[in-house]
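cache lookup: miss for this entity combination. No prior model stored, computing from scratch. Input as submitted by user K.M.:
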Amino acid sequence: MGSLTQPLAVLGALVRVSLMTGMQYRANFLADVATGAIRTLSTLGPVLLVYSRTDTIAGWTLPEALLVLALYLLMEGFVGGVIEPNLSMVVEGVREGSLDLILLRPADAQLMISLRTVAPSRLWDLVGGVIVGGWALATLPSLPTPIDVGVAAVLMLSGVAAVYGLWILAICLSFWFVRVDNLRFVLWSAFDTGMWPIPVFQGWIRAVLTYLVPVAVMTSFPAMAITGRWSPALVAQGLAIGVAFLGISRWTWRRALASYTSASS
Amino acid sequence: MISVRDLTKVYTVPIKQPGLWGSLRSLVDRTTRDVVAVDGITFEVPEGQRVGFLGPNGAGKTTTLKMLTGLLHPTAGTCEVLGYRPKERATDFLRQVTLVMGQKQQLLWDLPPRETFALNRAVYGLTRTAWSDALDELVDLLDLAEVIDRPTRNLSLGQRMRAELCAALLHRPRVLFLDEPTIGLDVEVQALVRRFVRTYADRHGATVVLTSHDMADVAAIVDRVLLIGGGRLGFDGTLPTLSQTFGEGRRLEVRGADTDLGGIGLSRDDAGTWFVSGTAEAVNRALSAVLQAAPNADVTVTDPPLEEVLRRAFRAQGQAETPS
């Protein structure tokens, strides 16, 4: 098997296994679907409430804000459905030493730890995101141009890379400090701000949400592209943040593995 | 094959004062100390040899195994396995080794073992033919046919361990690292696991490095014993040499003798059994005397129990703790 197809085969096998695991318990699976749908609806509440009192916030109309919300739900689904459950398993694995068996596999350990499981309940946020996004596009005064959509897709991928890199960085801390569960809650709280367009925030908060917890790159940046608010500088900024987070997290991951102490058996 | 030079591992561990106050203090003022788990060990293992690491708890056996598989990075010294440096985790290295840990499992808990095996096919990049050939062989050797399609969580410990071995060996590794492979298993499964390891190693010429507390594992599987205590290597040799070096020699026991055997050098215990221990020649001499004096008596000659030999060996190495 070639060196390029092997990671893809591993990826396919991992996704297959995690979906099968998710569907093992039927009742749980159905409950997950229901809670996922409810959560999507409840996220809509605050945005609709605010826009019932005003027409624009920081120059963003309701359909434009819904676009950000749709992207936020996609991010929630991705982080909550794929990244978070896997990376909490890593924290557990470091504490109990069960990471041993992953590190012995002749496949990229970072890939293996990132895709061992999925949480089907959070994957419903993705469906919610698609529905809200469709609604937003249908109510926008004009449809985005193909270029706008292409730029948005690139920025979104960059945002996914940035958020994934951030989460890997958080997880790496567990190799040195073992218990970092609380950090996850801090990150989630920061992510919640991603449901609002980034121009709503000013000053250092805006800088934090762009560079430190790059949630804006994943939600607001693509929405800015779709609504024609993008410039080459914005694209360059978004790409740089994505690449930086991915690169730094990869480097840190390798350093963290060297400090892995396992757990005595 | 395996070459280890001055291998050392030092852990830095926090020292916490006892109690709540101690916990509070360690939040702001954390003191640590260094614990030397493995202290400059050196040895070689040629291809196809079966080696057992023996030592009390905390002797450094598992730490050594984890450095040999690349899980832990050595603090000092070097180790090479199959010409690779394990800590680099080269794909070609990982494809040729396996580590089975009696206390940790790789099987996917909610799915049948077959799904773990299928995942490993992708992870190890095996062709379908190579995979199914290996699977057929292992299912047969490990008697897994009835187990393979039942969810792992519904399997007994023995069944799970057998399936673990199958998952760990599907890629036909050249080096097997086994860390306490029979821990917690019942006698029958222990025997099956031991038989299996021998058969697999013989059939595929695999090298085996085993750690165990169970002397029966050692006696059944290994050709060579390395005693490790306090992170240092002590005895290195075969099991018979170990017995000769640290054992009391063979033991002759005579039950149901109708004459007094004290005159030919035997002692009598509280249960009325006559006995004598010594070198093979001394015991043979005593035996022929006993057969003349008491031809109808029930006579047994035994080697010293391995546990006893080890206890003496560890004591000789200055280890207070004995293997459990």
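stored under new cache key. Confidence is low (pLDDT under 50) at residues 320-324 of chain B.
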